[in-house]
């Protein structure tokens, strides 16, 4: 009986130890599963981290390339801006010169127009004076003819004739001078 009780107590002790070992094994399994999950998560995170590092390296290369290209484009833009400013300055200068030339041309044109009007007026006056002189010469010639017919036999007629001849010569000279002046005025007007 004592042996049986001893065996029973040993069996119970073994059973309890078995239960304890099973409990410990389950706890270890739970812990192992938890650790395995952590390892899997850590591995996934490490792979993701490595992938992100690779992506970051690629993006760094892209950023460097973009910076270089931005510097090139900024340099080209500055050059284009300077060229544009040079062209704009030159065009403004040309516009000012053209405006000055236009103003000078307008002033000279106005002066020439006024001179032309003066010359035309003077030519009209000279033509009128020439016409009057011609009329006087014709009238004088007519009078001379009449006097010559009426007074051809008398001495007074001879004296008057010589006087009228002198007047005719003077009028002829006046006519010549008038013609020369008219021709001179015509030449000035043409100029």
Describe the structure.
- It is a single chain.
- The protein is mainly alpha-helical.
- It is 97% helix and 0% strand.
- This is Tuberous sclerosis 1b.
- Residues 95-136 form a coiled coil.
- Keywords: Coiled coil.
Order of helices and strands: HH
Main sheet specs:
none
Question: Which residue ranges are poorly predicted, with pLDDT under 50 across at least 5 consecutive positions?
Answer: none
Report the strand count: 0
Strand content: under 5%
Q: Averaged pLDDT, please?
A: 88
Oligomer: single chain
Shape: rod-shaped
Radius of gyration: 66 Å
Helix content: over 70%
Number of helices: 2
Give the helix/strand class: mainly alpha
Q: Could you tell me how far the N terminus lies from the C terminus, measured between alpha carbons in angstroms?
A: 165 Å
Task: Quickly describe the structure.
The protein has 191 residues and is mainly alpha-helical. Helix content is 97%, strand content 0%.
Which structural traits does this protein have?
97% helix; mainly alpha; rod-shaped; 191 residues; 0% strand; 2 helices
